[in-house]
Queue: 4 jobs
Job 1
Amino acid sequence: MKNIGVILAGGTGVRFGSTKPKQFIRIAGKRIIEHTLEIFENSTVIDEIAIVSHAEYIDEIEDILLHNSFKKVKKILPGGKTRNESSLSAINAYWNERKRDHISLIFHDAVRPFVSEDILGEISNALRNYNAIDVAIPSTDTIIEVEDNKIESIPDRNRMMNGQTPQAFRLSVIKKAYDLALKDPGFKASDDCGVIKTYLPKEPIYIVEGHEENIKITHELDLFIADKLLNF
């Protein structure tokens, strides 16, 4: 199998007073996406990298590649308005490959610059036996289900986990799930595992244990934590 790391950098949200999306904010001397790309570039289990970017920032991505030695990056793809549309951009691009039956896509948030080689290795190993992989850590907080500002239920915390990325799939399986999803006028999913769970419910989704440091940089506090981790 050929493992393709798909770096999802299509977000356009501007935070922390920056004039650019958060994946282009600099911490420890580099843009966040550069830290993420380095991990995938140096990984022994990643064969190729594709970057999905909002069309407005493709020039920025090209500038990053010009000033770095990311030899595994083979595709820069335009993203969509949603996470699902960005994932679909990569799925369709690789579906046209000659050896598509031997491809796995490993989707990862550009703003998670602390994914480890151990996690990527576990994903690669799991792909030998499963067609869909998620990364998650046990929930440390009580989860409550709320409606109209009132608690409806409190699930057993021992059964709850917090999802992270990467999420990995055999290309043929995630393509099949999206083909079914696109026929559904009510299609809505927050991530790619959700597409599998909804439209291929009999397909098991294997969980690889993540890590607390594999944070997604979303809020200003996350930026502070990331800077400390990178300078530790």
Job 2
Amino acid sequence: MKQQADRNRTEREFEVGECVFVKLQPYKQLSLKQKGKNKLAPKFYGPYQINKKISQVAYGLSLREKSRVHNVFHVSCLKRALGDHQSAQTMLPSLDDEGRVILELEGILSTRERKLRRRTIKEYLVS
């Protein structure tokens, strides 16, 4: 049984100063819980730099000051960032005091009206 289980396992070890992506599942974490479906939300955020190695399986990351997520992660939640780290970056969502995600509206791009059964519904395209 151990041989079968070890086939899919990989040894992960990171050095201080390396960049990694953090795996978060907002629909499972209470502090990041949103209303609605989070099925298509990104699972990896980052890249973030490793500040310190706490043990073989725990690493401390340099997260934003506004993030309410603890900065120590298990090695199974980390994925090495390869290539150019600066091109694409997904940030951890900002949270209010109750733990809900703060959404910032830049502007309304267009509106349209749609009929649904007997009602007329207004739809907005926002940025």
Job 3
Amino acid sequence: MGPHTTEIIISTTLFVLVSAVGFVAARWRRPTTLLHLDEWGLGGRSFGPWISWFLVGGDIYTAYTFVAVPALMFGAGATGFFAVPYTVVVYPLVFLFLTRLWTVAHEGGHVTPADVVRARSGSSTLALLVAITGIVATMPYIALQLVGIEAVLKAMHVPGSWPLIAAFGILAA
């Protein structure tokens, strides 16, 4: 056994377990039709506050928290520490303010923030700008997640880029 075999076994086991749970969850409460955007985008609006809490937590505590923040603190020193309390404070605030957004979206049958903006303001241009901003803001976040996965794989001395390609393929599936 090499020095990183245990890390690779644990990571692979957890990856397979989480992937299996994801595939089982996809078939858990199958909708009658997938023709509505809220079925695949919002889980048919069937997530309660308990599952939503963990989904938002999974969004916050990712490669940003565990890779980018320590790297920032290493490079910038104590000024990089702002991200730690920021994340802790923002997490409950997200639930405080987004509860109203969720209520408005649910009552109006809206799926995206752009839908809510279009319905509330009546401006298609503003809704388009909100949608474009969301897409553009998400791109660096996705790139950060991939870089974080790649850094973890390199730290475990996993050769090549095939594990990253496999992770992306399973995510796409």
Job 4
Amino acid sequence: MNNFFAELKRRNVYKVAIAYIVGGWALSQGIAQVFPVFDVPDWVIRLIVVLIVLGLPIALALAWAFELTPEGLKRAEDVNLATQPRSKSHGWIYVVVIGAAISVSLFFLGRYTVGNSASAARTKLPAKSIAVLPFDNLCEDKSATYFADGIQDQILTKLASIADLKVISRTSTRT
């Protein structure tokens, strides 16, 4: 088992996995922030995220099968490790750190720019809006509560048919 993990490390599968996950997460965060601005449908965003997730095993299989050498991309079996100079390059760490910084900045950008305008739009009501408060059942028979609820529903339905009138939902008026 230790030999397997050593082979994973030698073939750079760990590095590819970390870089792919960070890059995929950064890409999905960027897509989730940018695409709604251009009115791209949600199913397109979901499709891209699914493709990113499905690409991870493919990237790991390619990292296992191929080795990046100074001469180019070669099959891992064809690479002679004795003649290969192994430099201790830590450039992939910079890629991971930059990807994480971009992801965090996109997260906060979306959190504090889009969120504030959306919450402001939610609290601002149109000029013509109405709420129908629930009716209380004042009779002795508690089984007639459905009647009070039905009256509120009928009033809400009739008011909702008026084009210029914003009707507050029944669940929003419950206390």
